[in-house]
Amino acid sequence: MQHIEQPTIVTVKEVIKESSNFKTFVLDYPLDAKPGQFLMVWLPGVDSKPFSVAWQKENEFAIGVIKVGPYTKELFKLKKGDKLGFTGPYGTSYNFEDKKKILILGGGSGIASVTYLAQRARENNIEVDFLIAAKDKKSIVYEKWLEDQGINVIHRFKKNNHERAWDMFKELSSNNYDSWYACGPELLLKKIVDLSIEKKTKCQVSLERYMKCGIGVCGSCCVDPLGICLCQAGPVVNATFANNISEFGEYYRDGSGAKVNFK
Ligand SMILES: Cc1cc2nc3c(=O)[nH]c(=O)nc-3n(C[C@H](O)[C@H](O)[C@H](O)COP(=O)(O)OP(=O)(O)OC[C@H]3O[C@@H](n4cnc5c(N)ncnc54)[C@H](O)[C@@H]3O)c2cc1C
Ligand code: FES
Predict the structure, then answer these.
(1) pLDDT, tens digit (0-9, with 9 covering 90-100), for 20-34
(2) pTM, entire model
(3) Per-residue pLDDT tens for 179-228?
(4) Is the shortest distance between the CB of 219 and ligand 2 below 6 Å?
(5) Which of 34, 167, 229, 255 has its CA at 20 to 30 Å from residue 220's CA atom?
(6) CATH of domain 8-90
(7) Of all protein residues, whose CA lies closest to atom 36 belonging to ligand 1?
(8) Under a CB-based contact definition with an 8 Å cutoff, are residues 38 and 235 in contact?
(9) Distance 210 CA to ligand 2 centre (A)
(10) Where are the alpha helices (DSSP H) in 151-215?
(11) Ligand closest to CA 227
């Protein structure tokens, strides 16, 4: 368990509209986070919610946010020069440093977590194939940003490919990758984990559970049957760990603790 810390207050340096409901907030601070870690982002008078680091440079970093409800609606009102707070970075990170060629899947809000992984992997001269899972062409974000880092970006709307992300992932997975990484819709993550166990390929996924404190105090992110807090033991876990979570791909708990089924 970590200690409660005072939020660090930072200035919004830039707001980039990536799509109709996805914005990148560039924040003026020399963060020292590892790929896969998250922050509890505090909007005074609103709430504090978990967001992954989307990329990080020497004196600034970014979070990538999808507008889904009351908190993110308020966050979307922020403009250049506004301030917000954060605590963290928290949680586990992706292991990638010793790899030569990796396959990444990012989908929905999960794309932010693996975008930072892709950035660091390229800085370590690792070859990266990055599959974006998106329901429509307008939801594709970070394509140019990733390509500018020398990453091979693949998605179903390139060359009018109609295959779904899972079919494309299966096809790609027969290439010789040292490891797979994924963050996105949980039912897709479950299929990837099952395939990695079947094929004995190294794989890490980042899992989202309802997080209120981020430091192992409130218990809202505990998973069945392990009773382990994912804000501490996750969000990044390997395939074997994910496979031991009986609720993985089945259900999660909302803010009140009630079960919500994925299917
Ligand atoms: C480790 C982690 C990293 C995340 N990284 C990102 C990111 O990089 N970009 C991004 O857009 N989103 C990310 N999320 C999800 C983000 O925290 C929620 O979308 C946000 O809190 C929604 O708040 P809301 O009030 O706008 O929506 P609500 O209407 O409250 O909820 C919309 C959805 O978000 C989920 N949610 C709400 N509050 C939380 C919470 N405290 N913890 C987890 N899930 C919650 C709900 O279960 C629901 O599915 C991450 C979540 C986790 C756990
Ligand atoms: S978010 Fe409170 S214990 Fe994990």
Answers:
(1) 999 999 999 999 999
(2) 0.96
(3) 999 999 999 999 999 999 999 999 999 999 999 999 999 999 999 998 99
(4) yes
(5) 34
(6) 2.40.30.10
(7) 210
(8) yes
(9) 8
(10) 165-172, 186-199
(11) 2
